[in-house]
Amino acid sequence: MSLTVLVVDDDVRMCEWIARSLSHRGVAVTWKTDGDEALAGLDSAAWDCVVTDLKMRGVDGLELCERIVRDTDLPVITITGFGSMEAAVAAMRAGAYDFLTKPFDIEELHFAVQRAAQLKRLTDEVRRLRRVVDDEGVCDGILGESAAVSRLRRLIARLADSDASVLVSGESGTGKELVARALHAAGPNHAGAFVPVNCAAMPDALLESELFGHARGAFTDARESRPGLFFLAQRGTLFLDEIGELPLALQPKLLRALQERRFRPVGSDREIPFEGRLIAATNRDLAAEVEKGRFREDLFFRINVLEVEVPPLRARGSDVLLLAQNFADRIADRAGRPRLQMAPAAAERLLSYPWPGNVRELQNCMERAVLLSTSDRIHAEGFPDAIRLYQRSHVLVTATDPSELVSLDEVESRYIARVIEAVGGNKARAARILGLDRKTLYRKLERLKSEEGAPGPRRPVDPRDRGSLDRVGSGGAHLDRNPVHDRVS
Q: Could you give all domains of the chain from N- to C-terminal order, each with its CATH number?
């Protein structure tokens, strides 16, 4: 059963008919013939809505409706055999969601129940999202004391008051949704809902309907109208995660909705104004996607009015330990276990590892370590092998050891890899730092890629390798070697 409904009517035959008819339509019905009994049983189950008769002995439907609306968030549908304008007005004033007059068609009641249940679930979701924001506070969930995080907090504070579109970029697992929630919580639409959607997790055929909604009969199985996420984000924030995965055919429709501030549900001839804020996120280099024809340039400029780059975990220094301890405490609390302190050797492992999976990988690591711990401390033995066995050694190459010197091409390739790593894979920003235009950078990367497959005694470095050239200068160069991943960067 997908819906649960409480029916209150002092007519037993009416209760039985409603219960029997709705059960055939996938609705679980519990019925009561007394208002006081119904009020006493409100906490006994997670109801989607209440259907009540107005004229009953004892507590009548109006009083029941008023008390339910006052004490809970349940929508109430009122029914009566004495249909009149006065009765309808009284029911609405009591807070009723809908009003039906006997005799009514069971399909009419079923439709009202479905709409009321949808309202209840949306209300619950909005409350949950607001509670998350209230618990975290503005930027409180973005932990860290590093310069990179301090800059991020200051940028969020500067951008929060605007209702312009924001593009949040960064590697996977860096916390882009957390940044989007902080922007929403500090922004002018904070009282509205924060509505997230992952563009990569939804089939292309359903994404348009999910975003804009659809009218009844718009396609097969569209038995009723359904509001889309644009509608749910009215006076709030719509967060489009992984927008780089948005189908090319859908991009013009999103562009028009953002430009005109209006959207049209699928199969509808009516446009609805959009009064919310858009925040998009991506782990791709959208400028490169534009050049490759996989993302529309006009849409890129529309969503990139303001940009926030989330730093990778490896650029946040000792924030790794702060985050690790915070995760460990939360995981221990959730599991009902005493909080654990970090052993020095474990802390050293965490600081030396480059965290390709960023904060998400760190969270998974700490969950494993806490659950596997048999003492009052977190030890490196509880970490995954990739972290526990990772070793970073520095090999100093100087002019007194000519056999160890590398060519300028090798130095260039490794430095390019380091810059791309430092900016989280954003090739447009890497090109600016290197003093190259993007096309020149792409040519160099293509050359490195072709050399990687060529035979020879030395393996050139892939720009995506995690290790890198630590320092290039007159004194020499430090090279990182990772025996676990069997690669030299």
A: 3-124 (3.40.50.2300), 137-309 (3.40.50.300), 314-388 (1.10.8.60), 393-488 (no CATH)
